[in-house]
Amino acid sequence: TKTNGLALVDRDDDGVDRAFRGDVLAGLSQRQKAVPARWLYDDAGSQLFEDITDLEEYYPTRAETEILKGRGEEFAALIGAGRAVVEFGSGSSVKTPLLLRAIEPGAYVPLDISGDFLRESAAALSEKFPGLAVHPVEADFMREVALPDEVAGMEKLGFFPGSTIGNMVARTAVDLLRSMRATLGADHGEAPLLLIGMDLVKDREVLEAAYDDARGVTAEFNLNLARRINRELDGTIPVDALEHKAVWNDEFARIEMHLVATRDIAFSVSGREFAMKAGETIHTENSHKFTRRSANTLLLAGGWTPRERWTDSKGRFSLILAEA
Ligand code: AVI
Q1: CA-angle at 119, arms to 116 and 125, nearest 5°
Q2: What share of the chain is helix, strand, coil (3-state, %, to 5)?
Q3: 53 CA from centroid of ligand 1 (Å)
Q4: Helix, strand, or coil here: 125?
Q5: Is Glycosyltransferase there in the keyword field (predicted)?
Q6: What is the DSSP code (8-state) at residue 17?
Q7: Contacts of 224 (CB under 8 A, 6+ apart)
């Protein structure tokens, strides 16, 4: 689950999230309507994403878990014991313990913008690893984060699984990789490592099915954004006139999710009027897929040198160890 928590959210007197309203109004005013993908993850959206990770068609979670399960000894040899593991995003219930069990970390520092979710997952982790020092930090990790004093003297390993980097356009991804370097102390003479999941380019059919499953869970995940706009921003979007579309954009090597208008519609959001012609879309998410080279190029642009790379047995997903 990923949520946007309360603590770092700026709300107006009516309790409306100002950043959400700003992004939606600006995005719906563009020629190609678009809403940033981060807004897919309210409580309902986060639960739907969890459901997606169990789907037959959605291979990334299973593929990455297979690598984490099978390569523990190699991680231990390359990473060594005693590092502070800094996870960008609160740990998922499955992946993080696999890494922590393999490498004997000195501490675990989950970073997340959602305080509630952060505390919950940190508590669950502490229960699983009673001897491990866990220091959750509530922060927006898109910027440099000050780590707790307790891990000041320790070597660091950043952990960013799930290919969430793929949900960013290259410019944002590079900014994030550079912020990670700074957060992990690379600018102050430390030599941090980063273990990062990056999903791979593959057949269009496999990719499009992964983002348009037979049970319609991904469609619900996408449509939930329109419902959220109606709920939180006093919107009148006729959700029944929108359809989920997931399409491979070969030019940019990414799956794009859109909400397509099935007829001409008009609606208002926060008192502003909008219209869509039949066939017009709202672009709601990019999920970039990488080749070995494009992954390396992105990491290098972000200040990280790839050192080791693992893929699952079907060659669908990669986990890369890089050093600053
Ligand atoms: C969170 N992120 C890596 C997912 C992905 O595969 O891009 C989000 C997602 N969107 C639709 N299905 C899954």
Answers
A1: 140
A2: 40, 25, 35
A3: 9
A4: helix
A5: no
A6: B
A7: 40, 42, 44, 45, 48
Instruction: Give the distance (Å) from ligand 1 centre to CA of residue 19.
Output: 22
Element (H, E) at 32: none
| Cα 244 from Cα 282, distance rounded (Å) | 10
Nearest CA among 59, 60, 290, 86 for reference residue 170: 290
Predicted TM-score (pTM) of the model is 0.94
Angstrom CA distances, 15 to 20, 27, 233, stand at 12, 21, 10
Q: pLDDT tens-digit profile of 196-249?
A: 999 999 999 999 999 999 999 999 999 999 999 999 999 999 999 999 999 999
**At a CB cut-off of 8 Å and minimum separation 6, what does 120 contact?**
90
Cβ within 8 Å of residue 112, ≥6 positions away? 5, 89, 90, 118, 121, 136, 138, 139, 141
Q: Which two tokens stand for residue 242?
A: 């929108």
Per DSSP, 290 falls in state: B
Q: Which long-range contacts (CB under 8 A, 24 or more apart) does 96-100 make?
A: 96/125, 96/159, 97/125, 97/128, 97/129, 98/65, 98/68, 98/69, 98/72, 99/68, 99/75, 99/159, 99/195, 100/125, 100/129, 100/132
Give per-residue pLDDT as tens, 239-255.
Answer: 999 999 999 999 999 99
Report how far residue 140's alpha carbon sits from residue 180's, in angstroms, rounded to the nearest whole number: 11
Ligand 1 proximity of 52 Cβ (cutoff 6 Å):
yes
Long-range CB pairs of 173-178, under 8 A, 24+ apart, other chains included: 173/288, 173/298, 173/302, 174/298, 174/301, 174/302, 175/142, 176/141, 176/142, 176/302, 177/298, 177/299, 177/301, 177/302, 177/303, 177/304, 178/302, 178/303
Please tell me the distance between residue 152's alpha carbon and the centre of ligand 1 in angstroms: 33
- Asked if residue 160 has its Cβ within 6 Å of ligand 1, the reply is no
Amino acid at 310: W
